[in-house]
Amino acid sequence: MSKKTRETISVVLRYAVLVAVGVVMFYPMLWMVGASLKADNNEIYSTISFIPKHPSFQAYVKGWTATGFNFSHFMINTYLIVLPKVVGAVISSVITAYGFSRFQFVGKTFLFAVLMSTLFLPQVVLNIPQFLLFTGIGWVDTYKPLIVPAFFANEPYFVFMLVQFMRSVSREMEEAAEIDGCNSFQRLVYIVTPIVKPAIVSCALFQFMWSSNDFQGPLIYINTVSKYPASLGLRLIADSETGFEWNKILALSVISILPTLIVFFMAQDQFVEGIAAGGVKG
Amino acid sequence: MTNEIRKTPWQRFWKKNHGLIYILPWLLGFLFFKFYPFLSSFWYSLKDFNLFKGDAPFIGMGNYKTILETKKYVTAYKITFQYAFLTVPLKLGFSLFIAYILNFRIKFVKFFRTVYYIPSILGGSVAVSIVWKFLFQSEGLINKILGLFGGEAVNWLGSPKYALWVISLLHVWQFGSAMVIFLAALKGVPQDLYEAAAIDGAGKWRQFFSVTVPLITPVIFYNLVTQLCNAFQEFNSAYIITKGGPLGSTTLISLLVYQNAFKSYEMGLACAMAWILFVIVAAFTLIAFVSQKYWVYYSDEER
């Protein structure tokens, strides 16, 4: 075998692997969308093809009102939780990262080590005392236990990413502004924040996607059905459905992940850069 | 100068340390939402504490003893270990392999990367868990495909032997984020090292294990630690897809903690379980950190 043929074979092999893996990755999603457009279980179970014979949105229409609440109600609830969380996480993480990257103060090294070690602190240890704490102040069955911690930079990964970014940018502008009489807070708002905008966008995106997917948090804190976010609403329908009309459940599943997908596609370059920059859990 | 002297010690402290005010939000959040819960969870674990019984007597290591003596609980730890040691190596190996292929001059890199990454952003959601449950039903898509190749239909969700594999595969399916991190690291390996290795007669495999892997050990290390932490705490898939069954074969420890705490309100017992899990995770993290000097290579080190 000449060098040339060997080279060709390995190139072909590479693409073959990539395509095969791509199919495995993507087919479940494709199939989910396809099945949601199919007429009934019979059609879904009869074939491995994802293409519906007579595509119809009937399942979406029927699924929409399956619980006695419109599904839009659950979707709105989700974003009533997610959007404040994004705002809170961004503001508090930027402020904290600014403190760690631009100032000297007593115990800084120690505090930063503490912050970093919370990256590895399992949430499962904290769940119960947090629940008791929030029960004690009457926050159970409200969105506060889910939202308020985000306003206190509770995601160490974001702070870490922002600190890395802030350390890497030049401080000349800030020094000039200081000479012109800007105080440290003005420098944060008018100079640092615009410079670190790419990192801020990454944080916002991650928070958006993680919180949209969050299931355990609402499961612990939200008891009233009318307050359920989409994740709980979806499970409610999937569990209560007897005789399982799968197209209905899958239709709602598609709806529930649609906003996340749209956000991802709008900002995917940002996103991938964000992960590559600091590494991410997930 | 006179000004300096007239300042109170407090003012002088403040002038030197006013950065503290910026980290205050985090510090408060840490104390209230992390540090206090962390300590009190240990304190609760030493008590016989049921939310709806009046008193919570101190019983020392009683809860821990109960856990270690109850077969159901010990099994849950074993299953959690199985889950972690099944998913993490598979996920890391697979994501590194794919990243390595993508790092050749491949057309449509961006397209492939996107396709592989999508499961990672959706994987934790209830929607995907529902789809997964659907795919692995006895009449589901997976069995249909097996049938095409002449395979027997497998009762994936009904048999204790396979159910853990189903939820493990869901986790491995989300290899995209690990892959993207690996890909960034691979791009950082200088091309001339490969050329030098090729001149010395090293084939592609040899290059991979002798050049690539050693140089990206810091990233392997990072991925290993974060993935282990995540795997030990997995909850959603076991809760939604298998509900811990069949016959407890997918009862991961976080599921048991949830059931004990929020279904039967045995807060003390649940805290003890969570603490055992914490000690395990901490031990592995520590082992990874301590051992890194033997196998992790940082390029800015003196050699």
**Unreliable segments of chain B (pLDDT under 50, ≥5 consecutive)?**
none
What composes the largest sheet of chain A? none
Secondary structure tally, helices of chain A: 15
Overall number of structural domains of chain B: 2
Average predicted confidence as pLDDT of chain A: 86
Cα(first) to Cα(last) distance of chain B is 50 Å
**Which structural class do the helices and strands of chain B define?**
mainly alpha
Strand proportion of chain A, as a percent range, falls in under 5%
Using the coordinates above, name the CATH class of the largest domain in chain B: Mainly Alpha
Question: Which two chains have the most extensive interface, and how many residues on each?
Answer: A-B, 91 and 92 residues
| N-to-C SSE string of chain B, H for helix and E for strand | HHHHHHHHHHHHHHHH
Radius of gyration of chain B: 25 Å
- CATH architectural grouping of the largest domain in chain B: Orthogonal Bundle
Structural class of chain A: mainly alpha
Residue windows where pLDDT falls under 50 for at least 5 positions of chain A: none
CATH topology of the largest domain in chain B: MetI-like fold
Q: In percent terms, what proportion of residues of chain B is strand?
A: under 5%
What coarse outline of chain B follows from CA principal-axis ratios?
flat
